[in-house]
Amino acid sequence: MTFEYAPAPESRSVVNIAARYGLFIDGSFVESSSGATFPTINPATEEVLSEVAEAGADDVDRAVRAARRAYEEVWGRMPGRDRAKYLFRIARLIQERSRELAVLESLDNGKPIRESRDVDLPLVAAHFFYHAGWADKLGHAGHGPDPQPLGVAAQVIPWNFPLLMLAWKIAPALACGNTVVLKPAETTPLTALLFAEICQQADLPPGVVNIITGAGETGRLLVEHPGVDKVAFTGSTEVGKTILRSLAGSSKRLTLELGGKAANIVFDDAPIDEAVEGVVNGIYFNQGHVCCAGSRLLVQESIADEIVDALKRRLGTLRLGDPLDKNTDIGAINSSEQLARIAALVSSGEAEGAERWSAPCDIPERGWWFPPTVFTGVTQAHRIAREEIFGPVLSVLTFRTPDEAIEKANNTPYGLSAGIWTEKGSRILWMAERLRAGVIWANTFNRFDPTSPFGGYKESGFGREGGIQGLGAYLTKEVTR
Amino acid sequence: MSSAGYSRQVSLPHALPDSSPASLRAFLLGLPGVDEVGAVSRAAMLGTRSIKNDTKAWAIDTAISMVDLTTLEGMDTVGKVRALCAKALRPDPTDATAPSVAAVCVYGDLAGVAREAVGDGLHVAAVATAFPSGRASLDVKLIDTKEAVAAGADEIDMVIDRGAFLSGEYARVFDEIVAVKQACGHAHLKVILETGELRTLDNVRRASWLAMLAGADFIKTSTGKVTPAATPPVTLVMLEAVRDFEAATGRRIGVKAAGGIRTSKDAIKYLVLVKETAGDPWLTPDLFRFGASTLLNDLLLQRQRLATGHYSGPDYVTID
Amino acid sequence: MTENPTGRLDVRKTYKLFVGGAFPRSESGRTYEVTAADGTFLANAAKASRKDARDAVLAARKGFGAWNAATAYNRCQVLYRIAEVMEGRRDQFVADVLAAEGGSAAAAADQVDAAIDRWVWYAGWADKLAQVLGSANPVAGPYFNFSVPEPTGVVVAVAPQDSSLLGLISVIAPAVVSGNAVIVIASTARPLPAITLTEVLATSDVPGGVINVLTGDPAEMMPWLATHADVNAIDLAGITDADLAVSLERDAAGTVKRVRRPDRDPNWSADPGLSRIRDFVETKTVWHPMGV
Q1: Which of A8, A98, A426, C176 is disulfide-compatible with B50, CB 3.0–4.6 A?
Q2: CATH of A12-258+459-474, one of 3.40.50.2000, 3.40.605.10, 3.40.50.80, 3.90.79.10
């Protein structure tokens, strides 16, 4: 016998999934006015997990009005210290129910339980803890002595980190005194609905948090609703641009966190083993469904072969399969649409002449999967070097000098994140100054923290989430008269 | 370069040095750095692997078979060593299916006692070269080694001169290992780096390469007399070193994690480290060992738990 | 501006654009008539075209590189130098503003004083922004993590139409202080104070391309600038046509530009605060492990 890990599935029994979910409006679950529903599917098995209500125009209106009422009558005028206590309560409830939330997240999203358990959920709780403390200290946030909330925030979030994105949106909004209507992605609504239950357990006043489910049309209705004061969107650059156009001329405040095509730059004096780990973590974490994923490996020519060999060796040890198995490294692709998009871009890479290598792993029969894939011989002109793939696909390019690395790294309309690997501190700071990206990871990658502002340059969006800088997105601008 | 026994034509991943001080120094300082935070987090991630059922049973038996059952106390006696040897040969008197450990590990003056007790059934490892500090003349160290081998030790666990290493006298450390290796004759040489005194993972990587280049058959983390002893990040870096050394020379060097590993859970984490770093070929007592004393009993308790389906207790394993 | 009391015939000035540190005419050869508040003829100003706007973007992108790379201390001194040189030409600015806006000489003088003081105020911000808007972030792990504000790049600003000098400087200064390069379209009807400012800029150690001044019709140039892929942000302060503002905001969506919408009831003499600086900076966050 050899040391092959036996299946080690996390117990699914910690979570109860209802057959049907309504919309969470004004503190309770209600049916959509049309009665329409849509299924949410486990991408690892293609089984339907639940039917979820689809919010239409009436429902959106109801939710926004509930949020408005809660803002005007309760939350907007509540002392910060009390808002803080509600947020601390929510943070604790998330910790208490974190295993349940992690399992549900993995079921609905397809991400490995190791990641939902060790990354997503701890960060979710941390975001509520961090922002809870701000609620009664906003006068110290650099927006004047008595900054005011904006009102009702419409928040639309993606499917790659469903609960974490919810936390990034809801925690600062509530801390600053806003109420929210949040729409989770149509393929991953379940943890948001469980979060609604947590709001009930916390006795959060009705209407402060409203969760409405639906697809793009529901999102459009929400952000365009005239009763909304603030729109926060995380998702594709394409949809971000549509929202920008639709909000032109309104007085709504807007923050956008959009796509990316990050360069992960490895110099010949890098700590090689950790750099390889960082490259792996950079692009194969969460199946590459990460806007800040290090999808372009820029490696110094002198060590390119060595790095690519080490990378392939390492990818050979990645374990693809059941997201609930505690030893799974690569879970399922979130939807068949996303899988098709990844496959199309990978085909374009092959057609354009890049050399494809995919890790030899067994693909389960059911569900949507894509093996960790590396393209070598990629040039800046290839689609796989320019377009966001949002999947476990890495494009390897080379450079000779630091200037060339900067030029290539910045040669993209995006500017969300970048990585630098070198043991030379002075070069790290030189590079970090010149990279046009909002988050620079030096000798690490894909680290997140509620105290650390996150957000992009250029077409990766604007505004920051997290840190003292993130609060500005939910407070009035300084009064200039 | 005489004694290392590798081909000088090999150029990957790095051109290998000759034994001159300048060449060794250039080579060791030219090795890629180790980012401590990254290494620690990689080791921690591997520590989350969940090993269950059949895999766990296999891992426990494999871990038992990798133990160098150790006693290295000033109060060691002939009686103590004989009892240890009996335990080493048959760890679980109630269950003949439990494997023997890999070796017993004792001070050199007790190597003869141990050999007599285990016969040809097990390896006898003797610590030598003025263990644990290594603070003695080379002559004394060589005599220490030769006596232990003559008394029946077929494995020698030597310590490097950490003072010389830390002051940058790499050639001196190298030459000493070469000399001890020669004194070992047919006995296998394990070179103890005492990573707790080297402090940085960069040093662990350099010392690993230095020992391998000088002819070590095994590289070993610690004497057990210094805290911290073996840790997952240190072992990770050493496993990377043997992996890369094989790529460069075709030779497989063993790794021994010694000190501080007390539970089955920890031992299994080390096996995961081995599997996912150096690879499956290293999952054998010929290439991976645990230097431990109390670990064995916990492995046996877990083994009984798996065999019987209920939790065992400390009175159901022997205390030697 | 007209007759010299001594009876000497004055030498009039040709009013040109200011792009890349040079004073070109509009490539289109067009000018438009600028009159005083009382309707008397003042000058023929260059009427910049979309190609002038395009050239300005090229110049600004070039200027951005050097200006962004300059030390904050250096940027502070350059902005302060603008104030120094303006002070030396205070009378000319007062005359320009008075001619452009009418009203009392005292009010014009007040505006010029406030405009000079505004440069001084912003100059002092150059080397404090990173401390006030940046942070060291106590992340839960062995990492050093810090955030710094950085300029967004090339900013196109439409200067306020009414406040010909203070308003103008109130949109230029907050963008350049952080290291952005600016293309400003001066008040269409009142461009002469802006043109006099370009003469100050040309002699104040401001690197070429950092501040570019166009005169003409924003409605003609802005659609090109709002869609220009090498412009990072637009400040619509001087767009008075609400429909145009909406359409420019839509145009800007194509490359996700940062947009500052027209201020509601702006008061250019009030304390500006940091809001306009914030609108044209990005926060960059850097992580690095802490280990041995």
Answers
A1: A8
A2: 3.40.605.10
